[in-house]
Amino acid sequence: MPSGMRIGKLTAINYSQLRVKISSEIRGGSVNLYGNIYYFGNIGSYLKITNAIGEVIICEVISIFDSDLHQEKFSFDIESNRELLIKPIGTINRLKEFNLGVGVFPSLYSDVSIVTYEDMEIILRTNNEPQNDSYTNGITHESFSLGISKNLINYLIDVNIDSFFNIHSAVLGNSGSGKSNTIAHIIQEIHRKKSYSAIGSRVLVFDVNGEYKKAFTNGLNANISIKYYKPNIKNDSDGYQPFYLPHFLLTIDEWSAFLLATEATQRPFWDKVLQESYRFYRIGSSSGEDQEKFANYLRYRVCNLIYSTLKMADTDTARITTAASILGSITSIIKSNSDLENVSANLIDDIKKLQAACTISYGDNKNKLGAATQEVAKKVDSTKVKEVINSKIKNGEFFDHKFLKIAAELILLEEDVRGNKQIRGYTATMLTRLDFFLDNPDCEFMRESHEIISINCFLSNLWANETDRSQLIIIDTSELSPDILETLTSVVSRLLFDERKKLIGENRRKKPIHLILDEAHRYIKKHHEYLLKENIFEKIAREGRKYSFYLLVSSQRPSELSETVLSQCANFIIHRIQNERDMQYIQAILPYFSEAFTNKIKQSTPGEALVFGNCVSMPLHLKINKSNPAPNSDNCKIPEEWFIPKWLQDAELST
Nearest-CA neighbor of 295 among 369, 357, 350, 358? Predict the structure, then answer.
């Protein structure tokens, strides 16, 4: 037999499919060539045909039938002329290069042969052997094992590392279809490479279901360091470290999203609250001249509030009553925080003088409060006030969350005095969310700074371990509510991306970061459903590649995902999807998606997937290798939980 082994002849040709008559000497659906068994008698198997200019056309079997007709019905006979319908996929040229599509079609009656393992190596262009790297003067690994081909049975499929990880990718499929196994297997493959291990990798997993820790507990390269984080735990527990994302790291947009603040009224109000919180923090935390400067500012605010009250078009009785209420509220605000109270002793004395001037005799104050306010105002240094007003808080600058409520109350008082009587109604929802932030245990990881005082400090703590930088970080977010989950994932990703954007030149291509977004539909939703005005993941999807910042998106509901993020992915591993809406969405986002792909996806069993994009030369139907250890994603086994031996049940009850 010739190399490649002829199995039949081409008997009909059109643009979309070719017809092949199998030689009568070929029995069954497989052949043995040089000791390897090749299967061609199954849907999806590969065959090849050489055209007139010496190019090899790779085709996929799409239909198998018997052309004999007996008594108006088809019959099966192994000696009969069996036929195949095959679909052209791509071409191997004379330079041994594979490209999708066909330029010159083969001639009628051309020989049809099996596709060998050697052909597949040319098609996939992968290399398992480590390569010399001129930059590091060492060795780099070129590919990783992904699974076993469903088209060329028993053929192991390797994927080029650079093609897969050098662009955004997506792993999609129904619950239970094998997404978690696929992601765990890929990361395990990379971090198990021996000799020159992936110590330069930086992979962060947002583990929404709390299932990935189990997959990385053992078996990785000894040089690989892993950190497991969990919000709202106080001490190391079950291998997890406490995760902290201090509130001062949030931008005004992120605060507004978290507090559900409206753009027109509440967002400007909250901006003022943040500025006042920072100033109050500086009053309590500064010393010497700085402390006096901020205390001077607070005295200025008190005088302004009283002046504004006295200008109200009301009776003296109403004005003085309002002023007394404001002074009482400010006193409560100051005394509610020990740091403020300790540095505001002189101011409290001044407030007491103002309160003493809040007297009414026959409906007239006789300008006692005005005169008292003028005396206090003489102590105000206007130059220092301007310095404080101009010293606005910068993104990522530390302040204590305890001042948020105090600042909000002061701003409300100010708006009340200005005659904005509806402000409390306008801000009620936002202030309720503020109370949620200040009191709810789910937000504790945002309230506690745990010695994190800056963005650099946060990023350093995130990646570093006791001796070196970690290569894999897993943040278990399984116990967070949707709004807190969206805040955590967005803020962490934005901080990392902002850090990458500072890099210039060659540094942009060094130390890449890969985010693995588990259950991404929960926080990368379609635009109108975002809490955030602009979701950071859309920005990363559009711009991340030039800063070596990449996404690996995993979702069981692609129809709920952002079109922007999904359309920027260039590699896809699609497991079984039964939901018609999700399939239609994928087809709409990816215009080259064909009906044949749809059928393969719908018919896939758990663990099987269709792989296409930059990482493979042509679409491949695979059985993904099992991760070892597997992630903790197994379903409950009902019979084992229901039908328990009586002795075991008694033992459980006794303990």
Answer: 350
Dig out the tokens for 364 from the structure: 């007239």
Q: Which residue has the tokens 């009850």?
A: 653
Q: Rounded CA gap, 442 and 435, in Å?
A: 12
Provide the greatest CA pair distance for the chain: 121
Distance in angstroms (rounded) separating the CA atoms of residues 295 and 558: 54
Average pLDDT, the chain: 85
Write phi, then psi, for 229 (nearest 5 degrees): -120, 155
The b/e string for 605-629 (b: 16+ C-beta within 10 A; e otherwise) is eebbbbbbbbbbbbbbbbbbbebee
Mean pLDDT of 492-497: 96
| Joined tokens for residue 312 | 């109200």
Q: Is 620 left (phi over 0), alpha (psi -120 to 50) or beta?
A: beta
CA dihedral 476, 479, 484, 487 (to 10 degrees): 10
Average pLDDT value for residue range 442-465: 90
CA distance 367 to 80: 115
Cα separations in angstroms, 587 against 331, 524, 591, 598: 63, 19, 6, 9
Q: What are phi and psi of 349, to 5 degrees?
A: -60, -40
Pairing state between β 203-207 and 571-574: unpaired
Q: What is the pLDDT of residue 249?
A: 94
C-alpha–C-alpha distance, residues 101 and 387, integer Å? 68
In sequence order, the 6+-apart residues with CB closer than 8 A to the CB of 298 are 279, 280, 283, 344, 347
What CA–CA distance (Å, rounded) separates 493 from 266?
Answer: 25
Please name which of 222, 165, 216 lies closest in space to residue 194, comparing C-alpha atoms. Answer: 222
Q: What pLDDT digit, counting tens, does each position of 33-69 carry?
A: 877 788 777 888 889 999 999 999 999 888 888 876 5
Measured CA to CA, the distance from residue 515 to residue 154 in angstroms comes to 32
Count of Cβ atoms closer than 10 Å to residue 545 Cβ = 17
Match 């662009």 to its residue by tokens. Answer: 167
Angle of the 316-335 helix axis to the 403-417 helix axis, nearest 10: 170
- Which of helix, strand or coil describes residue 82? strand
- Pull the structure tokens for residue 565: 């993020």
Query: For residue 610, which of 592, 595, 622 has the smallest C-alpha distance?
Result: 622
- Residue 465, pLDDT score: 66
Position 450 pLDDT exceeds 80: yes
Q: Phi and psi (nearest 5°) for 509?
A: -95, 5
Residue burial 96-114, b: 16+ Cβ < 10 Å; e: rest = eebeeebeebbeeebbbbb
Instruction: State how far the alpha carbon of 460 is from the alpha carbons of 113, 304, 386, in Å.
Output: 58, 43, 35
